[in-house]
Amino acid sequence: MKKIVMSLTAIMALGTALNAGTYGNTYDAYDGSYTNDRDPATTIQPVIDVPEIVYDKEESVSSFWTNEGSGFYLGGAYSYINTSDDFLVSNGTDTVSGKTDDSNSGFLVNAGYDFNKYVGIEMRYTYLPGLTKHYMARDYATGELIAGSSGYDIDIANLAGYLKLAYPVTESFSIYGLIGYGSTSWTADEGTFKVWDSDSSMQYGGGLKYGISESFSIFADYTLLYDGDTQYSDSGEDWSVDSTISSINIGVTYKF
Predict the structure, then answer these.
(1) Distances (CA, A) of 22 to 46, 79, 126
(2) Order of strands, edge to edge, in the sheet holding 43-44?
(3) CA distance 220 to 251
(4) Which residues neighbour 142 within 8 Å (Cβ) at sequence distance 6 or greater?
(5) pTM
(6) Cβ distance 104 to 154 under 8 Å?
(7) Residue 248 confidence (pLDDT) above 80
(8) Which residues, 6 or more positions from 252, have their beta carbon under 8 angstroms from its beta carbon?
(9) For position 4, what pLDDT does the model report?
(10) Regarding predicted confidence, which is higher, 56 or 179?
(11) DSSP SS3 for 141
(12) What does the pLDDT look like over 162-205, one tens digit per residue?
């Protein structure tokens, strides 16, 4: 009997303590606060932890519009240049058609400015000295196939400006395309035979670039330097020539 009385006493004491904690405060379901009944001026507001949202302005702007990777650069390259001509020659009586396809080594120098790692502009000067033209032709009147060489050397120069669009595949490696406009000139001087001509045309190309350090990069690309028609007269013969000139370039650039 003594144990039962003691247990009832403990339960009553616990209930009194709980009632004191519960009924001592009034809960407001509207704003989630408690008001102390013994001291109505005291209001207990709930504490809610709200995570801080940090807005990173730099990351929110696409890197396409930033100037990351910008700067001037200079470079040079070895160029393997190919020239191809389809020609038609007439002296008023006979007509001969033919084709040339010749290649030789030249060089280029380039200078440009990268606005960022995606967009830039570039100027190039390409030079091919001393190319001997070899031809294969057919006489329309006789059907005779004629093969030979020009017997003189031709120097070819090209000056062009390009818009350069690049895509960085990795931090060091990128691919790019070139589109621009330039002027190509031909010069031949062999004794009494002298020819100088020039023409302008759209030019384009594409290539690869690999950065070997913060300043130095190597590149390899293909460019179409000229694709057009020329007409001229020489020694009573009228010439019509459809020419293409292209180059494969391997070089290095230095960015300041």
Answers:
(1) 16, 90, 91
(2) 25-28, 33-36, 43-44
(3) 7
(4) none
(5) 0.67
(6) no
(7) yes
(8) 75, 76, 77, 216, 217, 218, 219
(9) 43
(10) 179
(11) coil
(12) 999 999 999 999 999 999 999 999 887 666 566 778 889 999 99
